[in-house]
Design a protein that fits this description.
heterodimer; A: mainly alpha; Arc Repressor Mutant, subunit A; two-stranded antiparallel sheet; B: Alpha-D-Glucose-1,6-Bisphosphate, Chain A, domain 4; 8-stranded antiparallel β-sheet; 8 strands
């Protein structure tokens, strides 16, 4: 399945909102009812339901069969396809930045050597002083 | 030396933000991000690629051009122009790949903040259109999703 633009919009939007991120993280550990999802947040059930609707329309979550609780569950595939790219992106940049760390270490080392050499030049030479005494 | 953590977030539908701390003062980090002979040593992407071309005309309106080459001799080029340049704290540049697989220009904003000798670099990548973002996502799509599932939790709780 190729991710559609709508799913990607929804995925980026879902990940951009901290409440929706937390809801998805909670559902990643197992299904939960609206009341259970609302509990850890300082939010009303209707407010949580709004977030759930956004996630549901995007196909990121679905509803269970159980009539009373209507538990929500995570539909991991579309989300994983987008996050897979983000992970790949992260891995490439982790590699780049590790090499950048090494370049910076070398620049710091060179700068220190230059400063030490300059300090050495301006420092009065104790040996000479002793000789002139 | 311990490697600093890289954070990747998506603050909106078309934006991606990367944040990373470096153990060096801001001026030095800025140099490493903008001097060709230094950039060529680290901006290499996946293993196996080198950067034979790196030209940077560091001023507002100035252009830059990068070309990467892999072991098979395959090349990939990209470039753009600087819209803002404030040494050593801020860079805004357009970015477009030669074969236009991203479907348009991307705007990249880099900000450098120094605290007690260390520099935090945050890079915001803004895709011109959602088609451009989709193209970038498709480009990176891989077959094995297992690793993503494993790290999903981590990403969601970031």
């Amino acid at each position: 399945m190729k991710p559609t633009s709508d799913v990607l919009d929804a995925t980026f939007a879902a990940l951009a909102d901290p409440t929706r991120r937390a809801i998805l993280a909670r559902l990643a550990t197992g299904e939960a009812s609206v009341a259970e999802l609302a509990e850890p947040f300082d939010m009303s059930q209707p407010a949580i339901s709004k977030h759930l609707k956004v996630l549901e329309r995007a196909g990121l979550i679905s509803r269970g069969r159980e009539a009373q609780r209507r538990p929500r569950r995570l539909e991991p595939r579309p989300l994983a396809e987008a996050t897979d790219w983000i992970e790949r992106y992260r891995r490439i940049w982790e590699g780049n930045f590790k090499r950048l760390d090494a370049v910076l270490q070398e620049l710091k080392h060179k700068q220190k050597k230059t400063i030490d050499a300059l300090l050495d030049e301006v420092k009065p030479k104790p040996n000479k002083k002793r000789r002139t005494r | 030396m311990k490697t600093a953590a890289l954070t990747v977030t998506t603050p909106s539908e078309r934006e991606l933000v990367m944040t990373r701390e470096f153990a060096a003062p801001r001026g030095m980090v800025f140099d490493a991000l903008t001097k060709p002979e230094l950039v060529q040593r680290w901006l290499l992407g996946p293993p196996g690629w080198t950067m034979p071309v790196c030209e940077i005309d560091l001023r507002v309106g100035g252009k830059y051009r990068y070309v990467w080459r892999n072991a098979d001799g395959r090349e990939m080029g990209m470039g753009g122009a600087f819209q803002e340049m404030v040494r050593p704290s801020r860079l805004v540049a357009t970015e477009a790949y030669d074969d236009h697989w991203t479907g348009g220009e991307t705007l990249v904003t880099t900000e450098l903040v120094e605290t007690r000798g260390k520099t935090t670099v945050s890079t915001t990548v803004r895709y011109a259109t959602r088609e451009a973002r989709d193209a970038a996502l498709k480009m990176g799509a891989t077959k094995g999703l297992e690793a993503s599932y494993v790290r999903l939790d981590e990403l969601l709780t970031a």
